[in-house]
Design a protein that fits this description.
single chain, 4-stranded mixed sheet, 19% strand, globular
Length: 105
């Protein structure tokens, strides 16, 4: 990674469920974003942690707007921009959303 990547590190929150198969499927993409692209991901487990669940619930208006009202995991939230993406299907989709301001899904 270049020093420039670290200076411009993107930060996102991942809301996930401990035994969620979709979360497990996207985990390699999340790890790749951190490792190769310098993205900082704060992982918050919401199925067994009430504090994390409350943080996710506070974003209900975004879930209503971008996820058909479904409070789904995995989902990713960027505090700096107020953007949310639900259940990204691949590294490419997640990368485009994080790095290139890809649309909310």
């Amino acid at each position: 990674m270049s020093g420039n990547v670290m200076e411009n590190t993107k930060k996102v929150i991942e809301f996930y469920g401990e035994t969620c198969p979709y979360c497990a499927a996207v985990a390699p993409a999340v790890n790749r974003l951190e490792r190769e692209d310098g993205v900082t991901v704060e992982r918050l487990e919401v199925w067994n942690n009430e504090e994390n669940k409350a943080r996710m619930e506070a974003l209900r208006p975004l879930y209503e707007k971008h996820c058909d009202g479904n409070m789904v995991v995995p989902s990713f939230y960027e505090e700096a921009t107020g953007r949310l993406i639900c259940n990204p299907s691949s590294y490419g989709v997640l990368y485009a959303w994080v790095m290139n301001g890809g649309k909310n899904f």
